Structures are given as structure tokens and as C-alpha cells.
Amino acid sequence: MQIHGSVRSNLLSAIASAKRWRGRAIHAETADHWRRLADYGRVVARQPYGEAVSDLVAELESEMAHVRVA
């Protein structure tokens, strides 16, 4: 997976997208990308000098619960 910009900005974009798609169907590739981004965010958050993104990972996972995979 390629990340362009900070992990934080990517998570914020994914959260905004998930909110827009709330209750509607999304492509499986989109859901997979969001899952991998959340996984990567957890890895980054555990590193000594990583970005503080655990709150955003939790928010993305919460929003993902409200979309359907097509």
C-alpha cells in the first residue's frame, strides 16, 4: 500500500469518505484499503516516534461498521 502524505491525513480522508458512504455500498477494494490503512495506523501508533493516530484508527473502524461492501 502506498501512502501519500501523513498517516494522519490519510486516516482523516478515509473517515470523511466512510461518513459520506454511511449506509451505502462500497467496493471491496475500498473496504480493503481502509482496513489496511487502519492496520498500518496501528503499527505507526506503536512506534516510539510515530504519529498519534490511534484515535483516528478507532474512528475509521467505527465508521466502517456502517458501510456495506458490494
Describe this structure in words.
- 63% of the residues lie in helices and 6% in strands.
- With 70 residues, the protein is mostly helical.
- It has one domain (7-69).
- The chain has a two-stranded parallel ribbon with strand order 1-2.
- α1 (7-20) runs parallel beside α3.
- The mean pLDDT is 93.
**How confident overall, as mean pLDDT?**
93
Which structural class fits the helix and strand makeup? Answer: mainly alpha
Sheet with the most strands? 2 strands, parallel
Low-pLDDT sequence parts:
none
From the N-terminal CA to the C-terminal CA, the straight-line distance is 21 Å
Number of domains: 1
Supply Rg.
12 Å
Individual helix count? 3
List the topology elements.
Elements: H1 7-20, E1 25-26, H2 28-46, H3 54-64, E2 68-69
Parallel strand pairs: 1-2
Helix pairs in contact: 1-2, 1-3, 2-3
Please give a quick description of this structure.
The chain has 70 residues and is mainly alpha-helical. Helices cover 63% and strands 6% of the residues. The chain has one domain.
Summary tags:
mainly alpha; elongated; 70 residues; two-stranded parallel sheet; 63% helix
